[in-house]
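Lab notebook, bench 4. Still working through the backlog of constructs that have no structural model yet. Next entry is a single chain of 246 residues. Request: give me the structure tokens for it.
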Amino acid sequence: MGKRRRSKRSPALPWSIAGVAVLAILAIALTVAALRSGPAAPNVADFTPKPMPTQTQLPRAAFLGDSYIEGYGATANTIPAQVSKAMNWQMFAMGQSGTGYLADGGGGARAPYPGRSSGVPAKSSVVMISGGLNDVKLYPQNPGAFRAAVRETIGNAKTAAPDAKVVVVGIYWPYPDVTSDVEEMNTIILESARDLGAMTIDPLGESWMSTMAADGLLQDDKYHPNQAGYDYLATRLVSAIQALGI
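Model written out:
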């Protein structure tokens, strides 16, 4: 018998080599995909937001006064509210109807200015003191007591808020005719303020209110401003404060 011929077959690729090749191809594919997708997104749980900048504290302005400062009969913003908004101040209103340097407004929770002026916030930047209208009937009985009360009020405010600029506003007189007593009281208020190192504003001397009744800026009692009257006085007061350079 003749010899059989053996067929020539290619040797089979070992499984280990084939597995390595597949893994290499897979690794290359994953690397390319990662490069195309960019860096991984940060973990939200690890994110800490930056704190918001704190708002600068507005200068605090204390307003000590009577019904004009309290805003008796006002239907919108009072004088302190309007002035504080215009001047970019933080308002601290201390108005009590019927009160004055001597007048107690009927007592109870109300009190004359000397006792209340000690309650001016210590960190006030500005202290506005206005009034005297309710003291007109009390002044003739004891002018010396009125002068002493004015000085005590201003002194207490300066002690309570030593770094504040104190501004003393003279009498708001809503009538065209000015009596001699009112002129004397206004002079005492302004002279005492200047003597104690306070700034002054003089509505009476500048005739702010001499035509308010005729102009329809008073309430029916002809004593208190109506809302238009409060708006007018606030505008005049802002201009006066700015003129002082505050």
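Notes after review: Helices lie at 15-37, 67-70, 79-87, 113-117, 143-160, 180-195, 227-243. The chain has one domain: 60-243. Flag for follow-up if needed.
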